[in-house]
Structure formats: C-alpha cells, structure tokens
Amino acid sequence: MLPTFTTNSINILAGINGVEVIQAFIIALSVLLNDMLYLPVWPAAFLEFWNIQNPEEGKILDWAAGEVVQRHLMSAYFMAPLVGVCAGFLWHNWYAFGSCCLGQADR
Using alpha carbons only, what angle is made at residue 54 by residues 65 and 70, rounded to the nearest 5 degrees? Predict the structure, then answer.
C-alpha cells in the first residue's frame, strides 16, 4: 500500500489546492491509522477497555511483531508528516478552499 500511495501522492500534490489536500489528508490519515494497529504503542487501560488479550504488551494485533512492526513504523514515519502538513495547509487556507470549491465566494 505504501508504494501505491507514494506514487499517487505525486499526482495528488501536483495541482495543490483544497480538494487535493483533503484527498491526501484522508488517504494519509487512513494509512496512518492502519499503521497504528500494528504498532505496540497502545496504553494498557485502552486495551483492557476494549477487552483485547494481553493488554500489557501494548498491541492490538497479537501476531504483529518483528519485520511487520518495522514496516508499519517506516510507513508511519512518512504518513505522520504528510498528515501534519496537510492539516496545516487546510488550517491556513480554508477560506480559499471554501471560496473556490464550495461556491461561497459571495459571502
């Protein structure tokens, strides 16, 4: 999934405006959330609340170990900055997005 996303992100960000940023933000956020399922970073109280086995290990998926964790950690290293940059871009350019893409130029 990471190679597909990285090649598509070039096309998404080629004509950077609000629509492409929202698209990149949603895709990157979904990939980042998927990566978090494989990483042992969850607090034990959260895992106990959802009744997940072995909450002291801090992972949702029991079989996620070794190279799988390393691959998802590398993917998270790429996705986290992209989510942050897209969120910052949307925060500072929301009016421009609303005026050109949502038809609110007369407000």
Answer: 15
How distant, in Å, are the alpha carbons of 3, 55, 86, 91, 96 from that of 74?
A: 12, 24, 19, 27, 33
Q: Residue 68 pLDDT more than 60?
A: yes
Percent of the chain whose pLDDT exceeds 70: 70
Question: Per DSSP, which regions of the chain are E strands?
Answer: none
Identify the DSSP state of 1. -
Q: The whole model's pTM is what?
A: 0.67
Is residue 96 pLDDT above 60, yes or no?
A: no
Running DSSP on this structure, what letter comes out for residue 40? S
Q: How confident is the model at residue 14 (pLDDT cuts 50, 70, 90)?
A: low
Q: Are 35 and 72 in contact (CB under 8 A)?
A: yes
CA angle, 28 then 78 then 21, to 5°:
35
- Rounded to whole angstroms, the Cα distance separating 45 from 5 reads 33
